[in-house]
Amino acid sequence: MADLAASYPLQQVLMIKKRRVEEAERKLKEKREALKKEQEILKEKEKARDKVLKHKNEKLAQIRAEMDKKEPTSSQKIQQMKDYIKVVEVKLEEEEKKVQEQQAQVDQAQAEVDQAKEELRLKNLEVDKLNTHKEEWILMMKKELAVIEGREMDEIGSIIFQMHQMKKK
User: Fold this and answer.
1) How confident is the model over 96-154, as pLDDT tens digits?
2) What is the full DSSP assignment across 24-58?
3) pLDDT confidence bin for 2, thresholds 50/70/90
4) What is the mean pLDDT of residues 28-49?
5) Distance separating alpha carbons of residues 37 and 49, to the nearest angstrom
6) Going by C-beta distance under 8 Å and a sequence separation of 6 or more, which residues neighbour residue 20?
7) Helix, strand, or coil here: 17?
8) Total Cβ atoms within 10 A of residue 139
9) Model's pTM, two decimal places?
10) pLDDT on residue 70
11) Does pLDDT of 1 surpass 60?
12) N or C: at which end does the chain have fewer Cβ atoms within 10 angstroms?
């Protein structure tokens, strides 16, 4: 059996395919690590956006509280607060854009992971097909060897029989 496996005519091809599987596994691992990094960057950008959003909401609440006071507030102070809110809204839009751009990076990294998974699946399929072929080839070779051994035994038996016949004569 070991001799047959070693003499498999496609053994080198099988070894090449196995190396390709290992390479695809390494590539998938790298892609997963890249995805993880992109997701961490996204979380940081979301935190920065959420911080700006929280600040905006606090300032809006501050304006409402100022307007709800029974004491009159100067329109200049309210206008300053509104202008500041506009500045914060611009900053929020910038942060949201950064989050969206990073989400696109995460989506791209996820697509690369999915592609690497598919490549690995296909390469594993190739190796499985070759392994199946190798097993079938080994079984076929065993049958052929059994037939050859049977013929040789028949020849040996025939020779021994002829020798006995000659001795009897």
Assistant:
1) 999 999 999 999 999 999 999 999 999 999 999 999 999 999 999 999 999 999 999 98
2) HHHHHHHHHHHHHHHHHHHHHHHHHHHHHHHHHHH
3) low
4) 96
5) 19
6) 123, 126
7) helix
8) 11
9) 0.73
10) 67
11) no
12) C
Instruction: Give percent of the chain with pLDDT exceeding 70.
Output: 96
* Side-chain half-sphere CA neighbours of 106 within 13 A: 17
CA of residue 143 relative to chain centroid, distance: 42
CA angle 70, 72, 73 (to 5 degrees): 120
Residues 6+ apart with CB under 8 A from 46: 99
Q: Contact, 95 vs 48, CB < 8 A? A: yes
CA dihedral 26, 32, 34, 39 (to 10 degrees): -170
Full set of structural domains in the chain with CATH: 2-168 (1.10.287.1700)
Cα diameter, the chain: 142
Give, for 140, the enclosing helix (H) or strand (E): helix 75-168
Distance CA 142, CA 165 (A): 34
Q: How far, CA to CA in Å, does 158 sit from each of 113, 143, 162?
A: 67, 22, 6
What is the C-alpha separation between 165 and 169, in angstroms, rounded?
A: 6
